[in-house]
Design brief:
The protein is of the alpha+beta class and about 625 residues long. Helix content is about 35%, strand content about 20%. Strand 16 and strand 17 (about 415) form a beta hairpin.
Length: about 625
Amino acid sequence: MPTAHKQKTETTATAPETFEFGAETGKLLKLVIHSLYANKEIFLRELVSNASDALDKFRYAALTDKHVEQSGDDLKISIKLDEANQILTVTDNGIGMNRDDLVENLGTIARSGTQAFIDAITGDKKNDISLIGQFGVGFYSSFMVADEAVVISRKAGEEQSWEWRSKADGKYTVTQSDEQTSHGTTIKLHIKEECKEFLDKHRISHIVHTYSDHISFPVELEIDGEIQNLNTGKALWTKQKSEITEEQYTEFYKHIAHAGDKPWMTLHNKVEGAIQYTNLLFIPSVKPFDLFHPDRATRVRLYVKKVFISEQNIDLIPKHLRFLRGIVDSEDLPLNISRETLQHNNVLRKINTAITKKILSELKDKAKKEPEEFAKFWDNFGAILKEGLCDGTDVSRDLLLEVCHFRTTKSGDKAISLDSYIENMQEGQDKIYYLSGDNLESIKNSPQVEGFIKKDIEVILLTDSVDDFWTTVNHEYKGKELVSINRSGLDIEGIKDKEETEATAKDDNSTENAIKAFKDILGDKILNVVASKKLSGSPVCLSVQEGSMDMRMERFLLAQNQLAKASPKILEINITNPLVKYIGENAASEKARELGLLLFDQACIVEGEAIANPGEFSKRLNRLLEQLL
C-alpha cells in the first residue's frame, strides 16, 4: 500500500505538517489530473457522492455511537460559488475527518494497489475512467479544474477541526484549523482560469441534475445569498421501475460503486412477504481490482427504512457474489441495530439466501438467452462465482453448478454448461471427466487427454486456482460422477472409439514384462506401474491413486508448507508405444534403463512436478542424443 512520507515535523501543535506523496502516488495523481477524465465536470459528481457517503455514515453513527449526537441541523450538501475569488465550495455536515483520517484518506491514493492501477492504464480515456472508482481516487479529479484544494473537516464527536491543503505538486500539508465548524467537511477549490465555467450557477445546476439527482440528501446551491435546491432528494430505489430511466440507473451505479463503467446487469426488486426489502443491485461490466483481495470484502450497502447502516462486516451477500454493487433496504430491521448484532441476524440470512437465488436465476436465464453477453460476465467473474462451490453449507450449490460454464477439449474458445456437457456425452459414458492445470494450452496437449480425444469423449479443462478446491467437495452433478482424468485405473474402453473400431488385442506377457522393467528401473521413485487405458500416443504419464488429491492441489499445499513432502505417483505406460515396448524387451540393458529414467522425468515435466535431479536428466538426454548421431 502506498504511504505518505512526512517531510518535516514541527514542534508546535498548530504549525503545519508537510507530507510528500510517494513516488507511485505522485505519478498516479498526474494521470488522474491529465489523462483519465474525458469530461471534467465529473469532478463535481465525485465530490457530491463522497459528501453523500459522509452523511450516510453520520446518520448511522448518531444512532449507534454515544459519542456522536445529532446537531439538530438538517443533513445536506451545500455548493457555494464565489466568482470574484474563483472559489467553488462543497460542504456537508456528515461524519467528518480528523488529522489521521485526512492523512489516510486524502494522503494515500489507490489503496487497493497503486502500481496495479498504473499498469492498467491503457491511454484510452473511455476505458481508463472506469478504473478510477475502483481505487478511490475520485477526490483527486478536483485538480482537473482547480490549482489548489483546501479541505477543512471536523469529525463528529470531536472538538478540533483540521485543514488539508495541496496544489497537486507532490506534497500536502495538514494543520489544526481555527475555523469554528460543526461536524462535517468543507472542500474549497481554487478554480483555474480556463475552468471558470464551473463557477456558473446554470452549469453547476445542470451537472448536479444530470449526475446526482438521485442523492437522497438535499443538494443546495448558494450564490449571492440565495439558496436553490438542485435535486429531487428521493432515493432512487424507492421509485417504481417505470419511473426510472436507464441513464438514471447508470448514474446511481456510478455513485454507489464509485465507478465509471456501465453496469452489465441491473436488478431492481421489491420483495414483500415474510420479510420485506428492496434491492437495487448491479453487476459491473469491468472487473474491480479488489476482487482477489485477501479480505474478500463485499460492497453492497445495507439500509434500514432508507437509513444507511453499513456495507462492511455484514453477511448481506455471500463472498462469491462480492462483485455486486448496490443497496438492500430492509423494512424489518430496527434502525439502531448494531454491527455486532448484524453478524448473526436471521433476517439478514433470509435476505442473503433470497438474493443469492435471484442473482443465480437471472444469470442462468442470461446464459440461455444471450450466451455471448454471458461469456463476458463469466470471463470477468467466473472464478469468483465458483468459490461458492467450496462452501459446504451453500443451499444454492445445485443452482450455482447450473450457472457455471467451462471450457472443454471440444468447445474451442467458448465455455459450456454442465448440462450441455451431459447432452454431448458418448454412448456408454456415465461420468463427467475433467482435468486441471496451470493453463489451457498445457492441459489441452496433456497426454492425459489423448485417449479421450481419440474416443471423442469431452473433457472439462480447469485452470482457475479455485477449481482444485471445489472439485474436492462436489463429486457429482445430476447423478453423473465428476472424475479427474489424472486418476489411475480409469477405464474408458467400454466407450466406443470415434471410428467404432475394435480394440487391439494386447499381449499379456509383453505388458507384464514392460511393467516389471519400469518397476525395476524406477524403484521407490514411483508408487506403482500400471498399463494405461487412456494413453493413445504418448509413452507414459503420471497419475494418482483413487482417493488421493490432484497433483496441482498437492503442489499448492507444498508451496504453502501445509505438506511435508510430495507423495509418490503412479506411472501409467502405453504398452503399444515403441519406446515402452523396447524397454520391456530389453529390460537388462543400460540403454533401456536410461530411457526409462528419461521417460519418467519427462512425465514429471509435463505434469509440472519437480525433477529429482535436473543435472542428471540433462546428461541422460544428451547421451541419448549423441547415440542418434
